[in-house]
Design brief:
2 domains, 23% helix, 208 residues, 5-stranded antiparallel sheet, 5-stranded mixed β-barrel, alpha+beta, OB fold (Dihydrolipoamide Acetyltransferase, E2P), 10 strands, single chain
């Protein structure tokens, strides 16, 4: 049976919202700090498990930066806890997730936003000019350059094996595998080629 409740934790002035299943197993957790209710946690243990399975503790570190970490042990509603309806929980959950993903600069953890690193464009499963291109950056999670970045630069679509330097612009950890959103720090002028393609370390591995 699923239960939802919230209670105030005086330490840190945080309101904790929990959705729990059988035996108090945490299904979703929201933690809101201060009078303004700033989300400091908006975590789903099932998502966290996927990040750990895909990328080990490195993936857990990424998840913590973006959404925080949920309680690991079962949670029981303390005396004075307030019951929360499912619709209300979902509304607060959506707002907290959006804030943690879009409003917080993820500049800590194993791969801070703004980090520059070398990488190699791999095969785009959607073809040139569509969706984007995966990038091998030698890390447990794949890199990805959105098509809009390349279209705005009016540059040629990079061939698989093309090396470049990239800047981390965002982290996505809510799916089956974490993803590092990137932009090239430099692109060739319109109509000019990228550097000669080189051997890709893992060409095609992330394109499936």
């Amino acid at each position: 049976m699923t239960r939802r409740f919230r209670f105030h934790g005086p330490e840190g002035d945080v309101w904790h919202w929990f959705e729990v299943g059988d035996a108090g197993l945490v299904l979703r957790q929201i933690s809101l700090r201060g009078r303004d209710g700033v989300p400091v946690v908006a975590a789903d243990p099932a998502e966290l498990a996927l990040a750990r399975q895909a990328c080990g503790q490195w993936g857990v570190g990424l998840y913590e930066v973006v959404y925080g970490l949920p309680e690991r042990e079962p949670v029981v509603a303390p005396p004075g806890a307030l019951t929360v309806e499912g619709r209300e929980f979902d509304l607060v959950w959506g707002r907290a997730r959006s804030y943690r993903q879009c409003e917080v600069r993820h500049d800590s953890g194993p791969l801070p936003v703004g980090t520059r690193l070398p990488g190699t464009f791999t095969v785009s499963p959607w073809g040139p000019g569509v969706t984007g291109v995966f990038v091998d950056v030698g890390l447990p999670a794949p890199g990805f350059v959105d098509a809009l970045v390349l279209l705005r630069a009016q540059c040629r679509w990079p061939a698989a094996g093309t090396p470049a330097e990239f800047e981390v612009v965002d982290l996505r950890v809510g799916g089956v595998r974490p993803q590092i959103r990137l932009r090239p720090t430099a692109v060739p002028p319109p109509g000019e080629p990228w550097p000669r393609p080189g051997p890709s370390r893992t060409a095609g591995r992330y394109g499936r």
